[in-house]
Design brief:
A six-stranded antiparallel beta sheet has the order 1-2-3-10-5-8. The protein has a single domain (about 45-180), classed as Jelly Rolls (Sandwich), CATH 2.60.120. It is about 25% helix and about 35% strand. It is built from four helices and eleven strands, in the order αββαββββββββααβ. The protein has helices at about 5-25, 65, 150-155, 165-175; strands at about 50, 55-60, 70-75, 80-90, 90-100, 100-105, 110-115, 120, 125-130, 135-145, 175-180. It has about 180 residues and is α+β, with helices and mostly antiparallel strands. A hairpin with a 2-residue loop joins strand 6 and strand 7 (about 110-115). InterPro entries: Cupin_1, Cupin_2, QDO-like, RmlC-like_jellyroll, RmlC_Cupin_sf.
Length: about 180
């Protein structure tokens, strides 16, 4: 990396880090009458595991941990795993790939994310994803605000086998999510 690129990246990183404490301070419900947040350490392999119609998820942080601010989920899925196009009306999502490759479409843009890449899917914007390549994909899904983990739990409690799409749509609809034909 050349010196100018290094300095530019360093300045941008410093600016981003400097903004985090003030962002956290102003957005914490614990200072607006909510419960105080409790620190939590989550080790590799820990968390609640849920199979959401083939999407293997591990809940790392839930709304219970964050006073409803966000949910953090680790997903580890083999090639071919996908979620059909859909729209959220209540939350934004961020997908950050740690290993493997994830093809995502957000709005009208489709791309393949590799380790270190991320995609932001704001509410009311259609999006979908599919694991591509020849290895499992490990992704961190951040959901703002929290609550979607409850829908994922409901979907994970459906009987094994091919999903009943009418039932899946009904559950998702109660959480403000609709599928796009």
């Amino acid at each position: 990396m050349d010196r100018n690129a290094f300095l530019k990246r360093s300045a941008l990183s410093a600016a981003a880090l400097a903004s985090l404490p003030s962002f956290a301070h102003f957005s914490s419900p614990s200072e607006k009458g909510g419960n105080p947040l409790t620190p939590k350490i989550v080790r590799k392999g820990e968390g609640k595991k849920v199979n959401v119609i083939g999407d293997q998820q591990t809940f790392k942080l839930t709304g219970e941990d964050t006073n409803g601010m966000f949910t953090l989920i680790e997903e580890v899925n083999p090639p071919g795993t996908m979620i059909p196009p859909h729209v959220h009306t209540k939350e934004d999502e961020i997908f950050k790939v740690l290993e493997g490759e994830l093809e995502v479409t957000v709005g009208s843009e489709t791309t393949v994310l590799k380790a270190g890449d991320l995609a932001f899917a704001p509410k009311n914007v259609p999006h979908t994803w599919k694991v591509v390549g020849d290895q499992d994909c490990r992704t961190i899904l951040s959901v703002f605000p929290a609550g979607l983990e409850h829908m994922f739990e409901e979907l994970g409690n459906l009987p094994p086998g091919p999903p009943d799409f009418a039932k899946v749509s009904e559950i998702c609809g109660r959480y403000g999510i609709s599928f796009i034909a």
